[in-house]
Design brief:
Elements lengths: L1 H6 L5 H16 L10 E8 L5 E7 L3 E10 L2 E4 L11 E4 L3 E5 L7 H19 L7 E6 L14 E4 L6 E5 L9 E2 L3 H22 L8 H12 L4 H9 L28 H18 L2 H15 L2 H9 L3 H16 L1
Parallel strand pairs: 6-7, 7-9
Antiparallel strand pairs: 1-2, 2-3, 3-4, 3-10, 5-6, 8-9
């Protein structure tokens, strides 16, 4: 914790709190045993207000772009204040309106193109996409909305009249690590495709949208092509499969039915949610099978009844088949 305090800008209170929450969440996760080693600064570029942007290599396989500034003679990880972002900007593309800031001018155009590409990706996979423009908020810093989600690159929020998607801009600490080979562009396109899938499910499939969070997140990961092979392989081989329904704990259940409320291993849970949708698509009639299950679940609000209605089998048999499929694929 002392080393963390030395590395983080202690004068920026929202950012300091965000960095600590990220650190503590990682320490509590199943992936903490592997650690993060081999961080190396590959290059730096000057930014406004005395900041520099450091491009960091992580063990040769991951990368990050973190802003630093000098505080009391030491360079620490930081981010600008809201006042340093510049006056708000409103931009538009064919299917989106964007609210952003001059600080993000180095990535604004790319994010606009990627949002349109995400829409095309979902339309090609699901066959539907609303014509109504969605609102996109580009957050160059965490401190712009310091009590929003701090564990996602982007998130979708349905509103009665206008759908909104919020993106943490690349070249910020909040954006986190990304695959060095794919670049932040490849990583973010997957995430934006994931979030736009939520929008399409909500708007274009209203009879199959009030479902368990693993169905929502699993479908979004499936459409985005986020297959989580390494995490799933490690978890399956370690016997750390997150169950669909936790029958052991009377409260604070650690299962996929409560994915959105999990206190730990949420990233791993997304992998298992993906695996369930992939399993259904492979073994139970493709995406039509998934939509049948989702509609049955929306009608009954019971996974046991939904599985029986959609697939003609018991939940216990469905769970057993999924686990066997996991062992065959990742064991």
């Amino acid at each position: 914790a002392n080393l963390l305090d030395q590395a983080i800008d202690q004068t920026n209170v929202p950012f300091r709190r965000f960095a600590r929450s990220q650190f503590e969440a990682f320490q509590q996760s199943a992936l903490a045993r592997y650690g993060i080693a081999g961080l190396q600064v590959e290059s730096i570029a000057p930014r406004e207000h005395g900041f520099v942007l450091a491009h960091i290599s992580v063990g040769g396989h991951s990368a990050a772009d973190w802003p630093f500034r000098e505080v009391d003679g030491r360079w620490v990880i930081s981010e600008p204040t809201v006042a340093q972002l510049g006056a708000p900007l409103t931009l538009a593309s064919d299917h989106f309106t964007f609210d952003t800031y001059p600080w993000a001018n180095d990535v604004n155009d790319a994010l606009m193109r990627m949002m349109e590409q995400a829409r095309s990706n979902v339309l090609a996979r699901l066959g539907h996409a609303p014509e109504q423009k969605a609102q996109v908020f580009i957050n160059p810093i965490y401190g712009l909305h310091p009590f929003e989600s701090s564990f996602a690159l982007a998130y979708y929020r349905p509103i009665t009249d206008t759908d909104t998607i919020t993106i943490y801009a690349p070249h910020s600490f909040a954006f986190g690590y990304y695959d060095a080979n794919a670049g932040w562009e490849g990583e973010l396109e997957n995430v934006l495709t994931h979030e736009y899938t939520h929008l399409v499910q909500h708007r274009s499939f209203p009879d199959a949208s009030n479902v368990s969070s693993w169905m929502q997140e699993g479908l979004a990961e499936f459409v985005a092509g986020n297959t989580h092979p390494n995490d799933l392989r490690a978890a399956v081989r370690a016997g750390a499969i997150i169950p669909i329904i936790d029958t052991a704990s009377p409260a604070f259940k650690q299962d996929l039915e409560h994915l959105s409320a999990l206190r730990q291993d949420r990233a791993l849970a997304y992998g298992f949610a993906y695996s369930l949708v992939a399993f259904i698509v492979e073994k139970h009639g493709g995406l039509d099978g998934f939509w049948a299950l989702a509609r049955a679940y929306q009608n009954s609000q019971s996974l046991e009844k939904a599985v029986r209605g959609a697939f003609g089998t018991s939940y216990a048999q469905f769970d057993q088949e999924w686990r066997a499929w996991l062992e065959q694929k990742y064991g």
